[in-house]
Structures are given as C-alpha cells and as structure tokens.
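User: I would dearly like some help making sense of a protein record. This is the protein in question:
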Amino acid sequence: MSGVSLRRRFTRNFAVLALVVASLFAALTYIGVRHIVVTSRQSSDLRQAYVNAALVRQSIRDGVSSVPAVLSSLDTATLSTSFVRIGSTWFAGNGDASPESLPESLKQSPLRHVARQVVITNGQPVLVIAVPLSSVGATYFQRRVLTDVNGTLFRLVEVLALGAIVTTAVGAIGGRRATRRAVAPLEETAAAARRVASGDLAARLPLGGRDDEVAMLSRAFNEMIDLLVQRLERDARFAGDVSHELRSPLTTLAMTTELLTAHRDELSPEAREALDLLSGDVHTFQSLVEDLLEMARADAGSDGLVIESLGVHELVHQCVLAATRRHQLPSTTVIVTPSALETKVDVDRRRFERVITNLLENGYRYGGGTVIIHVDQVGDDVIIDVDDDGPGIRESDRERVFERFYRGASAGARGDQRGTGLGLALVAEHIGRFGGTVEILDAALGGCRVRLTLPVAAEEAP
C-alpha cells in the first residue's frame, strides 16, 4: 500500500484508540460527577430552604413587619436571595434579584408541595425553590445562582480534556514504540532482501534473542537464501563445466576451419559455401562459450573485482584500441568533451574492456557500419554514449535486450550474423557492479545509442 507506512498506520490507530477510550472515560466521568455535584447541591439547597421557610413562617406569625429583616439575614447567611409572597404582597431580602426573575410557573400555580426549577438567567444556571407556607397563607421562594457549580464543572471539563490529550499522546508514543518493535523484523527482512537483490548473497538475518515467530521468519528467510545460493552455484558450475568441456572441441573446430580456409581455392563452390557457414557458426560458438564462461564466473562470484580509479579518457581509448586489434573491428571515433578529460571512474579494467568490446561488436555487427563513442561528464556522473547508424531498437525491446539469451526480431534483422544474446546482458551485469546504469536511446546518427552512466571516482566526488 502506498502513501502511509505500516508503522504510521499502527501509530495512528493506537492514537485513535487511546483518544476514543479517553473521550469515553471523560464523558462518563463528567456525567457522573455532574450528577453527583448537582444532586448534592440541590439537596443541600433544599434542606436550607426548609430551614429558611420555617424561620419565615415564625416571623410571619410574630408580625409581618419583621419579615424583611428575617429575609435579609437569611440572604446574608446563605448567599442566596429570598422572597415571600403573602397574598398578593411580595417581600424581598437584600439580594439584587426581584420577584420578576422567578419562573412564572412557580409564581402563578397554587403550590401544595415543595417545587424546584433550574432556569438560565444571563447565561448562568439559577436554582429556584418554592416552599408553600399554608398555615400562614404564604409562599417562600429561595433563589440561588449556581455559579460555583458551573465553574466546578467547567474546570472538570478542562481537566478531562487535558487528560484525554495526554492519554492520546501517550497512546501514540506507546503505539509507535510497540510498532517499532513489531515492525523491526520486517524492516530487517526487507533490508536483507534488498541486499540479496543487489547481489550480496551473504546477507542473512540474525536468529539469537528473538521471539518464536520472528525467529521462524528469520530461519525461513535464511533457508530460502541458502537454497537460492546453492541453485545459483550449481547453475554456475554447470555452465562453467559445460563451457570448459566445449572449449577443447571448439578449438579443434576453429583450427580445422582455419586450415580449410587456407585451402579455400581448392574447394568446390558447394564446399566453399558450406565452409563459410561453418566459419560463421564457429565464430558465434566461440563468442557464446566465452560469454558463458564470463557469466558463470560472475554468477559464482569467482571473478573478484579489481577496482581501480582510472582516467575515463585514456581508458576508453585503450579499450577501443584493444577491441579493434583483437576482434579485427574497424577504426572507431572517440569524442571526449573537455569536462571529462581529467575525470576518473572506479572500474575493473578487464570488465570495462569487455563492455566496450561487446558494444562495438554489436554496433558494427547490427549497425550500418559507423560507430561513434561520446564521453562527457554531467554533474557527478560520467556519460558514455556508443552510437551507430543502424535501424535502432524498438522501444518495446529496449528493456528486454539486457535479458540473457534474448534476441528480438529487430536484432535478427540488423545484420547477416547471429548474436549469442549474452553481449548486452554482460554489459548490464558489469556496469551494475561498477555502480552505474545502462539504457537504450535513439542515436544522433539515426540508429541505436547505448548510454553508460558511471559515478565519478570517489576520490574526485565533492
């Protein structure tokens, strides 16, 4: 899955789970505490209202004139506002509220039982308790602003919200640490797999000090790599043994062909034609055996790299000269830009010479007869282009031509000789071991361009 890594998804899921649990806990806690606080306050105010009502009833019996003083003393003592209605006459304490602030439902209804109601006034909750005083024909009202309760609940919400945030953060951190431990074996396996894919067949996963499941995965991975190495070594030995066994009869065939070629004029026309076909096949057979031996040594890892920092200008000229002399190839033009005259690359000289030889042979064999090499430096890379003026390679074949033994229809149509299908595969193999890349493009001559990209030597890189 692209976009979000497994570790991030696990961390996010842990954080979301922690947030959900913390939010649920905070909601339940708030509801429970709110119920307890509000219920406790209402019960306390109700008990206080009963006591105040008893005092008011006694003051009414003693004389109506004493009611205002009693109400004022009650307001001072209880931090509430008290009202008394006797018939249609209202008496109030020393609070700021007036009888109009009382709920109409409590003022208009003839009360036979104690009633209470919470109303919102100026954004504040207010508890109003009405206590009927039937014995004196009056009703006592107690009005209490629940500011302290509201403040307590607001602070509770703040604390619970902070707790939810901290819990979510702790869940995310814990999830990340737990995920790191759980995903670490997968990352190690992926890293080992990448090393194997890059050619490091000695890469293995450690087994000691691991959980059973992780140890099982590591053991299975190591066994798979061991089997892969054994198969590669077996195939490489087989190809090497076959190639070695073929060299002796192939040498005999080559010597016999040369002997017959020396007496070609003495042969009949049919025999000459047969000799030409035999010579071509022997040459192809020799190239195939040499390529197979080179490939077998590379697969078996028995041809150790000898990396040197060499000047690319002199190196390319020497490789072109050696290929021209050894394989009787036409003279090849090499163009080196001023920026690449002093540039060095880290390569194995013998393998690089084989790369240039294969590219020149392909160019002259399948091209139109003209091959030009361009050498340039672009940034931290050296670009080597080998151009020919042949028909080129179709885009659909440009990736597959680097496969072993692949010869597309275009390859067979580019000349009269047959290739082995290993030349470009060896080029890609060697360039890859130098840390470079190879690709097929369209040449300025109208044919095929094989572009080699190599990093500048480490001692010269900035």
User: Anything to note?
Assistant: The radius of gyration is 48 Å. The domain at 6-154 is CATH 3.30.450.20 (Beta-Lactamase). The chain has ten helices and twelve strands.
